[in-house]
Amino acid sequence: MSLTHRDVATVGIGGPVGSGKTSLLTALVPELREQGLDVGVIANDILTQEDADVLRERFAGVVPEDLVAGVETGACPHTGIREDPSMNLQQIDSFLAEHPELDLVLVESGGDNLAATFNPELADYSLYVISVAEGEDIPRKRGPGVVDCDLLVVNKTDLAPHVGVDLNVMERDANGVRDGPVVFTNCKDETNIDEVLTHVRDGVLFA
Ligand SMILES: Nc1nc2c(ncn2[C@@H]2O[C@H](COP(=O)(O)OP(=O)(O)OP(=O)(O)O)[C@@H](O)[C@H]2O)c(=O)[nH]1
């Protein structure tokens, strides 16, 4: 199959397990649709279609069912896709075969598949999602996702008082280790989701 993914803009969404990637997608996609954009979604999971199933259900009536897909990446070190983006590129190709009008494909993954999500062959723009509940010191540990992504999303701001995190310290540290933008979100009440949306649109569609 020829890979024609460059006919559509792509956004990679990575981050540790449970940081809020699926929740961010859940908040973002209806907004993108409301702005008239045709969107496809790919969820990378180690051995299941769980995230894709959840998203298909959440996007019922918003995104056609065949534009929400799961890529099973494999768990074992020699079969996991690691930095190989080909399964995701093939999925984007399948989307485009049926929906040539697509404007944007969002690709969610985490853990071991981070390198695939952030591979420039796959993602034109990268979001890295961390959670306040992982601790105040995550930004200053200078992980590659935190430093190198196009947009750093610090999610679950509502939990800060419960886990003893000072958001001002996280913001100072995040801006100290990276040049790009940082947005603090709460996916539960959709605080600052519009700001993420603006960065994605500016970064990938009007770049
Ligand atoms: N309090 C709070 N909880 C959140 C927020 N965002 C997500 N959650 C919760 O955190 C949990 C994990 O969220 P997900 O969106 O599934 O995280 P994920 O990064 O997609 O997880 P994996 O796909 O398993 O890596 C869920 O119970 C969400 O409801 C937030 O902003 N605040």
From TrEMBL:
One GO MF term: GTPase activity
InterPro entries: CobW/HypB/UreG_nucleotide-bd, P-loop_NTPase, UreG
Signal peptide interval: none
Gene Ontology process terms (BP): urea catabolic process
Binding site for GTP: 15-22
Keyword hit for Nucleotide-binding: yes
Keyword annotations from UniProtKB, A to Z: Chaperone, Cytoplasm, GTP-binding, Nickel insertion, Nucleotide-binding
Location(s), subcellular: Cytoplasm
GO cellular component, one term: cytoplasm
Domain CobW/HypB/UreG nucleotide-binding: 10-179
Pfam family, one: cobW
HAMAP family reported in the protein's UniProt record: UreG
Protein family membership: Belongs to the SIMIBI class G3E GTPase family. UreG subfamily.
Subunit (UniProt): Homodimer. UreD, UreF and UreG form a complex that acts as a GTP-hydrolysis-dependent molecular chaperone, activating the urease apoprotein by helping to assemble the nickel containing metallocenter of UreC. The UreE protein probably delivers the nickel.
Purpose: Facilitates the functional incorporation of the urease nickel metallocenter. This process requires GTP hydrolysis, probably effectuated by UreG.
Name recorded for this polypeptide: Urease accessory protein UreG
Source species taxonomy: Archaea, Methanobacteriati, Methanobacteriota, Stenosarchaea group, Halobacteria
